[in-house]
DNA sequence: AACGTTGCCAACCGCCATGCT
DNA sequence: TAGCATGGCGGTTGGCAACGT
C-alpha cells in the first residue's frame, strides 16, 4: 500500500532530539496527554512527526523510565525471558518495569548475547529434525504452532556443602514445579518439591539422548508432577508423557549461586488435556 | 597526534494489527 | 466489509565516543 513514512513530509525534523524539544514534548503531554500522536506535534509546536514524538516519549522521556545500567537480576531476567519469548522485546519489557523494549533490545545485542554464549550449553543439543530448520527463535516457532507449548524447567537446588554442579558427587537435589502463564500460548513449568536422589547430571547431548530416549528413567522417575498456574489452577502432568518426541528444544542452562536449571520446550500434542485458563 | 576500528545507543524504517468510519 | 488512520513492534542504521595502532 505504500503509505509514505510520516517523516517524509517536508519540513519535519529528524535525528537527535534537543533538550528544548524534549521540554516542549514533556510540557505538552503533562498538560494535554497524548491522545493522538499524529496531531500532537502540530498542537505542541514541534517540527517532528507523531511517530518520532511517540518514540521519544516512550523510550526516553516517560517519567517512569528507569535509566542507568542494568542490574545482574535484570540481565538474568532478560536472558530467561528471551529464552522463553524470543525476540519479543515488548513482552520482555513488560516484565521489567521502567525498561523499554528498545533498551532491552540494545542490551541484548551489545552485552547479553555475548554473555550467554559463554555459558550456554551446546546450542540445540536435542533439536529434533522434524519440521524444524536450525535457525530462528524457538519461541516464535512455538507460539506459531497450533498446539500449546510448555516450557519445562528442571531446577536443582544444590546443597551448598556439595561440590560443583558438574561433579557427579552431588548426592541430593530437590526439584521444583510451578506453572505461570507467560502468554496465551506459553507457560513456564517448574518442578516443585519432588525429592530426587539422582546425581546432578552433566548436561550435554548424551544426557538428553539418555534421558529422553524411549525407555528413559528420567521421565518415568516421577510419574506425576503437581503444577500450579497463578496459584489457582492445579493440574497433574504425567512425566511419563515427556518423551523425546515431545521435547522441542533444550534451551539455556541457567545458574545463579547454588541453583541450576534448564529450559526445555515441550510440545503438548501427546500430553493430557489441560483445563482452560 | 592522527587515523582507523569497534561498540554503544538513540532514532528511524517498514511492516503488521487494530480500530474506526 | 473494505479502506484508511493510527499505534505498536522488531530490525536496522547512523552518529558519536572510546579504544587501538
UniProtKB/TrEMBL annotation:
GO term, biological process aspect, one: green leaf volatile biosynthetic process
A GO molecular-function annotation: transcription cis-regulatory region binding
Superkingdom classification of source: Eukaryota
Compartments (UniProt record): Nucleus
Pfam families in alphabetical order: Myb_DNA-binding (PF00249)
Cellular component terms per the entry's GO annotation: nucleus
Region of interest: Disordered: 114-145
Keywords: DNA-binding, Nucleus, Repeat, Transcription, Transcription regulation
Nucleus listed as a keyword: yes
Keyword Cell cycle in record: no
Residues covered by the Myb-like domain: 9-61, 62-112
PROSITE patterns reported for this sequence: HTH_MYB (PS51294), MYB_LIKE (PS50090)
Listed name of the protein: Myb-related protein Myb4-like
Gene (UniProt): LOC104247827
Amino acid at each position: 500500500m505504500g503509505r509514505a513514512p510520516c517523516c517524509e513530509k517536508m519540513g519535519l525534523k529528524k535525528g537527535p532530539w534537543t533538550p528544548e524539544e524534549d521540554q516542549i514534548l514533556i510540557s505538552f503531554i503533562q498538560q494535554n496527554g497524548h491522545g493522538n500522536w499524529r496531531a500532537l506535534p502540530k498542537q505542541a509546536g514541534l517540527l517532528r512527526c507523531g511517530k518520532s514524538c511517540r518514540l521519544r516519549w516512550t523510550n526516553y522521556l516517560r517519567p517512569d523510565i528507569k535509566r542507568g545500567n542494568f542490574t545482574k537480576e535484570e540481565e538474568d531476567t532478560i536472558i530467561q525471558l528471551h529464552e522463553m519469548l524470543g525476540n519479543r522485546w515488548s513482552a520482555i519489557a513488560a516484565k521489567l518495569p521502567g525498561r523499554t523494549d528498545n533498551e532491552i533490545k540494545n542490551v541484548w545485542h551489545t552485552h547479553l548475547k555475548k554473555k550467554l554464549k559463554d555459558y550456554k550449553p551446546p546450542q540445540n543439543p536435542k533439536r529434533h529434525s522434524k519440521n524444524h530448520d536450525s535457525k530462528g527463535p524457538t519461541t516464535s516457532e512455538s507460539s506459531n504452532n497450533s498446539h500449546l507449548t510448555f516450557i519445562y524447567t528442571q531446577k536443582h537446588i544444590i546443597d551448598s556443602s556439595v561440590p560443583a554442579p558438574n561433579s557427579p558427587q552431588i548426592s541430593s537435589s530437590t526439584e521444583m514445579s510451578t506453572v505461570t502463564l507467560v502468554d496465551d500460548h506459553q507457560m513456564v513449568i517448574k518442578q516443585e518439591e519432588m525429592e530426587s536422589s539422582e546425581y546432578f547430571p552433566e548436561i550435554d547431548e548424551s544426557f538428553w539422548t539418555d534421558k529422553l530416549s524411549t525407555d528413559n528413567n528420567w521421565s518415568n522417575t516421577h510419574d506425576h508432577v503437581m503444577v500450579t498456574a497463578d496459584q489457582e489452577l492445579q493440574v497433574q502432568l504425567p512425566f511419563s508423557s515427556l518423551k523425546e518426541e515431545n521435547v522441542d528444544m533444550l534451551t539455556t542452562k541457567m545458574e545463579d549461586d547454588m541453583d541450576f536449571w534448564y529450559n526445555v520446550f515441550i510440545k503438548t500434542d501427546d500430553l493430557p488435556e489441560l483445563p482452560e485458563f
